[in-house]
Amino acid sequence: MNVDRLIGTHDFLFITLDTLRYDVAQECLATGQIPNLARLLPGGKWERRHTPASFTYAAHQAFFAGFLPTPDLPGKHPRLFALSFAGSETTGENTCVFETADIISGFAQRGYHTICIGGVGFFNKQNALGNVLPGLFAESHWHPNLGVTDPNSTENQVKLAIACLAKLPRSQRVFLFINISALHQPNCIFLPGATADSPITQAAALAYVDRHLPPLFEAMQHRAPVMGIICSDHGTAYGEDNYHGHRLSHPVVWNVPYAEFLL
Question: Would the pTM of this model clear 0.90, i.e. be above it?
């Protein structure tokens, strides 16, 4: 996809499904639990990719520098976005190259209004660290009802995003980023009776997320054509090989679902 040809005519939507494992995403797709996301996936399939980092902060720093999850096949894979620097081996003829320190500033430089709807703690704006990633955007939002402990977090995030879009003229192009928090622990709150997180409770969380995304897609399509990216930033371990959590090297952490699409 040549992103340069879309800039100026398309809005951009970037959603990270924080902590979502590839195997959980695949299982939900195969069992029909995520019909709304399924309609967006090219060929009706998630693409398995490798994340550039094993936890939220590092992964998003890489994403915002143009290093999205890498296809899991051998070889050099040209990137959608890149920042100008000598020696880049994955900047191809179709790569959108910004002369800035991050892609958010790059979009802003090309006339886009940039919006961040935060989710997990690295976006909470409650301390210096929690302001680093939101600080890249012209407009950023966080509230506890968008965070990991709220069982209505995704619909709250979607409602806020739609309200932000409604304040802008349709002629204003937008780069909208949302960090979906529901997949992160504690995701057992999405499965009645569950008291501990597991792949099953994360699947329930993803099914919940799927139910509440359509109004966002509709609102964006009402404004302009949309180029979208949906992916996980990393997975997490639920006891595999005695590993728990993330910020560690294990396939359930490194393998993430990815999709890019046009609306």
Answer: yes
